[in-house]
Design a protein that fits this description.
Elements: E1 2-7, E2 15-19, H1 30-36, E3 41-46, H2 63-76, E4 82-87, H3 89-100, E5 105-111, H4 119-134, H5 137-148, H6 151-156, H7 158-170, H8 175-187, E6 201-206, H9 216-223, E7 227-232, H10 239-242, H11 244-257, H12 261-266
Parallel strand pairs: 2-3, 2-4, 4-5, 5-6, 6-7
Antiparallel strand pairs: 1-3
Helix pairs in contact: 1-11, 2-3, 4-5, 4-8, 5-7
Length: 267
């Protein structure tokens, strides 16, 4: 699995692991790096079967497998203790890590995620899957920004979106890989085990998210033993991209407020 490690270099530096959504690639987090790397060791990675972590995923691929793969890759780099910041699917990987490797995970941030799949999100995923299987990769990629970004932001950034579309088509993860990752995502249901996730967890959402109803985040935060909530008014599903300055400020404040005393003293 391809990892990139940036920011602080000391062995005892507080470590943030950034986990992307269904796209799976590290580049999603570019708008956060300048804000995070002065204060943390920051790990980004291409998830198995995506980007520079090319592989053929097995039948029955699951959220538990995604979490175990990440834990193993981090251990190979000598990283034993970390916080997880994840967008949608990446946030669920963070919750799974908190369950399966509780001694390694300090805190989790879940961006536009959920406790269990909402019927509206299920419909959106089905539409995207139908486009992929019945029309093709280019149609799937062209539709993707509609679920990620607010309409007015899309209208102002067409040149950027066209370039991203071309890149995503050229580097598409493959239909079977995407369908297996999507099935793992849709199958994840944390309701039976949520009481075991005792780490501090921030659920942060955007109220204009088209893909995931914002109400999923309050539900998640309220159900967790140590959950908290931040709501942004605007930014869409990918508000960490469209409203990065505001998102970064909110994230840094929560990380500072929930830091261990030793981390506060060092910052």
């Amino acid at each position: 699995m391809h990892l990139e490690i940036q920011g602080l270099t000391t062995e005892d530096a507080p470590t943030l692991v950034l986990a992307s959504g269904l796209g799976g690639v590290a580049g999603f987090w570019q708008p956060q790096l300048a804000a995070l790397t002065p204060h943390y060791r920051v790990v980004t990675y291409d998830q198995r079967g995506t980007g520079r972590s090319a592989d053929t995923l097995p039948d029955g691929y699951s959220m538990a497998m995604m979490a175990a793969e990440l834990a193993e890759a981090l251990e190979q780099h000598g990283i034993q203790r970390y916080d997880i910041i994840g967008h949608a699917l990446g946030g669920l990987i963070g919750l799974q890590l908190a369950l399966d490797f509780p001694q390694r995970v300090g805190r989790v941030v879940v961006i536009n995620g959920w406790l269990s799949l909402d019927a509206h999100t299920q419909r959106c995923f089905q539409v995207r899957q139908d486009l992929l299987m019945n029309v093709g990769v280019e149609a799937f990629v062209r539709a993707q920004p509609l679920f990620l970004y607010p309409a007015e932001w899309l209208a102002r950034n067409q040149e950027r979106i066209n370039a991203e579309d071309a890149h995503h088509v050229a580097h598409f993860q493959g239909m079977e890989n995407l369908l297996r990752r999507l099935h793992a995502l849709k199958s994840a249901d944390f309701r039976p085990q949520v009481a075991r996730i005792t780490q501090p967890v921030l659920a942060i959402c955007s109220q204009d998210d088209l893909l995931v109803p914002w109400s999923c985040s309050p539900q998640l935060a309220q159900t967790l033993p140590n959950g908290s909530l931040i709501e942004m008014a605007w930014g869409g599903h990918a508000m960490s991209v469209t409203d990065a300055d505001n998102f970064n400020a909110l994230l840094l404040r929560w990380l500072a407020d929930t830091a261990a005393p030793a981390q506060r003293a060092a910052s």
